[in-house]
Design a protein that fits this description.
By secondary structure, the chain is mainly α. Helices cover about 85% and strands about 0% of the residues.
Length: about 100
Amino acid sequence: MEVQKNIPAFIENDLDSKETLEFVDHVRHCDTCMEELSVEFLVLVGIKRLDSASAFNLNQELDDLIDYNEQRARQKRQTSFFIFIGALLAAIIGGYFLSGIFRK
């Protein structure tokens, strides 16, 4: 399954905004993929933490990671949209002024 192939990339924050949002939406509604994500997160992150003496709650960290990546992806998409609108308006206004210059 494509979602399960993207689990390591999601954990490492290597998915783009669209992929992240699709991934999060899917795992929130698919118990099988959420379970696989939990297992891989436990393995990938938990093993790294075994050497540290600090206490950790991997379930909470996974929930936080999902929320953080979803929020970050939404912000990136929103920023991209506003940049696109700004560039479009600049092109329209620029075209308007250039057409006025060439008419004279």
